[in-house]
Amino acid sequence: MVFFLDYIQHKRDCKFKQDERTERIRALTNYRGPYTQQDKDIINKPIEELVQDVKKGTLEPIDLLHTYGKVAIKAQEKTNCLTEVMISAAEGWIEDGSINTDGPLAGIPVSLKDTINVGGFDSSVAFSGFVGNKQPEDGGTVRLLKDAGAIPYVKTNLPISLLSFESTNDVWGRCTNPHNSKYSPGGSTGGEAALLALGGRIGIGSDVAGSVRAPAHFSGVYSLRCSTGRWPKVGFSTSMPGQEGVPSVYSPMARTLNDLTYFTRAIVGMQPWKYDYTVHPIPWRTEVEKEYATKTKLRVGVMKTDGVVDPSPACLRALEKTAVALKKAGHEIVLVEPPSPYEALQIASLLLNADGCQMFKSFYRSGEWDDPGAAQMGWLMNLPRPFKYLYYLWVKYVRRDNIWAGLVKDWHEKTAFEQWKLVAKREAYRAKFFDWWDSVNVDFILTPPNATPAVPHDGMKEAVSSCGYTFLFNLLDYTCGIVPVTHVDKTLDKLPAKFNIKKLNGVAQGAYKLYDAEAMHGLPVGVQVVGRRLEEEKVLAIMKRVEDALGDDKYQLLDID
Predict the structure, then answer these.
(1) Hey, which residues are catalytic here?
(2) Do residues 229 and 192 touch, judged by C-beta distance below 8 A?
(3) What is the end-to-end Cα distance of the chain in Å, rounded?
(4) CA dihedral for 378, 379, 380, 383, sign (positive or negative)
(5) I need a labelling partner for 20 at 20 to 30 A (CA). Which of 219, 356, 404, 512 fits?
């Protein structure tokens, strides 16, 4: 009886939120219709110039809100990327002076991952049990944004659990890729990426295993994974409160690299440590940005594989295209093999789920849909230890798959003592990687962001463990950025005739079961630029050098209807 009543309430709450969103959109009659010439001019002008237009009075903040409100509604119709629609409230914030139009982001609408707390709106985090948890006031990040002149106007879709490269849940429904509706836009900040690809401007997401980077790669936008302490993170809701083995970070995303850089510079310039006790008091280091923007010859370490899942032909082509372009631009290219990324995957996976997947599962209601990847993790975690050990032995000695066996063996809830030992392993790995980087003496590392382009819907059931190219740098807490480079080509990127998926380890098999160059034709493909800890200025400057090296062959953004 309790199960039935809980399920009924779950369905009621999901319907309530979807009806509420529908009504809020329906009321926005002034945000309908085709784009005007002013809309197109606003969408195509760098935000730095839009800010100056607002300060000079040639544009009003409400003009920008009208344009980007229209963008958001069109993107919602195409991809189901929105959760909380705050446009009417944003009009009020402009009128009552809540938005500081003298700030560095004066009048710029900013979209937010659903987890970010805005006063008067829910942060449901895709759990129906969180419906109705309206926040009484803005969180620290939203206060900072308003003080900077930015206008929060929508929140965006995400996966239940937040542990997926998809963005689907019962509360808001399935978010689709703006390039191909049969594929995921990424996760867990997938709705944000879909909106930005379709004309949104700047946004904020979170990243614990690649959650601002996989969506940028899947959807063809730009993102920066900041190191802990560089971007504010208070004033949020989450699926895993207390999880600090692999800390989650909040970070910026944007439609263009120019906007990403300006946005990051503006937020750091607002002294976020005065809004959030977790932020280091490190001002924007213009001299570092200039150094790497002008350095004649960069030494580029190219990591072609993580040793777990080799990149698919499409992702390898994007990596090689970028390396060739950098070499032609006069930079030195060296192939690098870092300390075992597989070891990092083992440590990070166990740390992230040391609670036995209990915390995020505790928020599920009876009958609530589960992400297929999260469900797989939970099923294996809950498998009785004797059966799990027999499965491990079969994988290791019968299938002779040491990679998958090594991930399965210790996949169970950890005691405090075991957790401490894992943290010690994490710190030892960080030290080893630090020394290795010094020894190879590269300015940055270039890697694939993922072994494949976007996954098809529900594909995380197979590909849940294929996240090593991003997860590695969460464990290390290194600054990383995503630059979109090209699109999947059904002819250039097909698998070789002799490809045999049965020869791959279990993680790689899961990824390659989903790879189909013909079906994926036209999906975006990016590269990942990696710096060391707290090197946001450097990574952004190098991302610009990468894009400049690509020249006329750089990524073409999705056309705006």
Answers:
(1) 113, 188, 211
(2) no
(3) 50
(4) positive
(5) 219
